[in-house]
Amino acid sequence: MYLSRFLSIHALWVTVSSVMQPYPLVWGHYDVCKTQIYTEEGKVWDYMACQPESTDMTKYLKVKLDPPDITCGDPPETFCAMGNPYMCNNECDASTPELAHPPELMFDFEGRHPSTFWQSATWKEYPKPLQVNITLSWSKTIELTDNIVITFESGRPDQMILEKSLDYGRTWQPYQYYATDCLDAFHMDPKSVKDLSQHTVLEIICTEEYSTGYTTNSKIIHFEIKDRFAFFAGPRLRNMASLYGQLDTTKKLRDFFTVTDLRIRLLRPAVGEIFVDELHLARYFYAISDIKVRGRCKCNLHATVCVYDNSKLTCECEHNTTGPDCGKCKKNYQGRPWSPGSYLPIPKGTANTCIPSISSIGTPPKFNRIWPNISSLEVPNPKQVAPKLALSTVSSVQVANHKRANVCDNELLHCQNGGTCHNNVRCLCPAAYTGILCEKLRCEEAGSCGSGSGQGASPHGSRALLLLTTLLGTASPLVF
């Protein structure tokens, strides 16, 4: 009996949990950039992709209204109540805090009663359009992680456009159109996000879902981020590997959820009827009590912390990267081209750290001496000696890290034994030589160098090398 009761309670708990939390924490991974692990060589750093936590981004934005004098209250004016559009004795007065409705009230704490809200001037200049642009700027690239939610204290507008910018407001592109009649307002067929698919997820649509006119119980407008995620991760966002893979490989999809600025364009207030009531123009205005924007700083998967200092957001970059978005390698860490981190493979991803430049590992010494003429030392094959001496000016670490920067050049990393440098990425060696800089005899690798092979250094060559080394040892000291 107890077992069956326990199983019933457990089943009930699972059901309630699934109902209360239909979505998992969508971006809950990648909260560590590096960790120490133990290997045969001791403790070493293991690097992984990382990103800041998702948070309320409205705490860090700047808001701008256009026209700048569109907020009500200067001069004071009366407007009609939301519940009764013909009871027009409410007052907006910018000089009285209790009656003022400034823009910052769109982002304050909404636990107060009555709710606080920004409000525009009324449509007293009808038929001139009553239009307002509300621009939200972060001066930083951010990635959206949840729905954008706008709560109106007035009726939801008959016509509105949500726009985004990726270049700090220099250019704009539409995110979504909203209208009571999409065909009439924007010459677009009405659609819902549910009409989209994986292949059309980037389509810009016009929706009539959120523009039902002047009603008291319909105040909210959404821009659906999670529903678009669900096309790749499934209805409950369980298959995050699929979404991460798409974000990694499809730049247009990644950019779709990335913004530096948002702009809400209010084009026509809620009318509620076919015709505007010109005798009661105080009925028509815009009022917004809350705007929710959740996201994170874009740090290209190279940081877990984003600092807000001097009214500016900046990533605290890891992986030897730098810049506001960790978008480039630090000085002396440009051993390979910068690359963003990768979400894959799940769950740690790939850090794609910047690695030391060859020049930062150790600068080859410069010589202020005159080299002896090798041919005067009676070396039968001078090419076997000079390359090995020249190679000593390149540290073993530099050679080991040849894939991290230029393999060869015409200044420090010369191809030896008659080899030629091809596009700074490899040496084209003569048939008898091999190695990164053509510094090895091919027969040495095969273990077939002998006195009869014609490739091994002769006793005369060994004596010449010894003589050359002695001469170098007695000359003036090296200058670094």
TrEMBL record:
SS bond partners: 429-438
GO BP annotations, alphabetical order: animal organ morphogenesis; axonogenesis; tissue development
Domain Laminin N-terminal: 46-296
This protein's UniProt keywords: Disulfide bond, EGF-like domain, Glycoprotein, Laminin EGF-like domain, Repeat, Signal
UniProt domain EGF-like: residue ranges: 404-439
Signal sequence segment: 1-28
Protein name according to UniProt: Netrin-G1 isoform X5
Organism encoding this protein: Sapajus apella (Brown-capped capuchin)
Lineage per the UniProt record: Eukaryota, Metazoa, Chordata, Craniata, Vertebrata
